[in-house]
Design brief:
Blueprint: E1 2-4, E2 7-11, H1 17-26, H2 45-48, E3 61-67, E4 72-79, E5 97-102, H3 111-123, E6 129-135, H4 140-146, E7 150-155, E8 158-164, E9 169-170, E10 176-177
Antiparallel strand pairs: 1-2, 2-3, 3-4, 4-5, 6-8, 7-8, 9-10
């Protein structure tokens, strides 16, 4: 378990399945002023496939952030979605798709950055790229850009991004960030 300021990061395990469903819901971007999605939206096949039967395949990997007292507050995960299961961030049969969410009351504290950096370190050398889909206007877009994700496809307000897994990146502030450094 990696210790950070007030929280730790550990690997996702099958008992985290219910929390992963909660994180899937929180990963859905709602524009300011719009009504939130109904909770049942995560049961739709095109969304549920990101977490249903977590751990079923060797490509399922991820991490969870836990604060003192054991409360889980965020998660990042990868799943290789192929064939009929292609997701919103699909690039090819070898590139897993990323999911990331932090409970609203814990956002802005670096938890998402730490989770994503841990995941990148963990899968370096396993995959050539990882991908994701993000909506234009989602504040997480800046995080993804800062950690080296690049736009591949824009379709309406949907953006597909990928991150190559073999190089350090320079953040927008000009700092060098090497996600493979421990």
């Amino acid at each position: 378990m990696n210790e950070h300021g007030g929280y730790s990061i550990r690997r996702l395990t099958p008992p985290d399945q219910s929390f992963l469903w909660e994180m899937l819901y929180h990963s859905l971007y709602v524009r300011e002023g719009d009504a939130p999605f109904e909770r049942s939206v995560v049961g739709r096949p095109e969304i549920a496939k990101y977490v249903r039967d977590w751990g079923r395949g060797s490509g399922d990997t991820g991490f969870v952030a836990v604060i003192e007292g054991g409360q889980r507050v965020g998660a990042v995960w990868l799943r290789l979605l192929t064939g009929d299961e292609k997701g919103f961030g699909y690039l090819d049969e070898r590139t897993p798709e990323l999911g990331l969410a932090v409970l609203p009351e814990y956002r802005g504290r670096g938890i998402g950055t730490a989770l994503l950096a841990q995941l990148i370190r963990d899968v370096e050398g396993v995959y050539e790229n990882i991908s994701l889909s993000v909506t234009e206007g989602n504040p997480a877009l800046r995080l993804y850009q800062r950690l080296g994700f690049e736009v591949c496809v824009r379709e309406g307000d949907s953006i597909t991004m990928k991150r190559r897994l073999n190089a350090s990146v320079t953040t927008q502030s000009g700092e060098s960030f090497d996600p493979t450094a421990s």
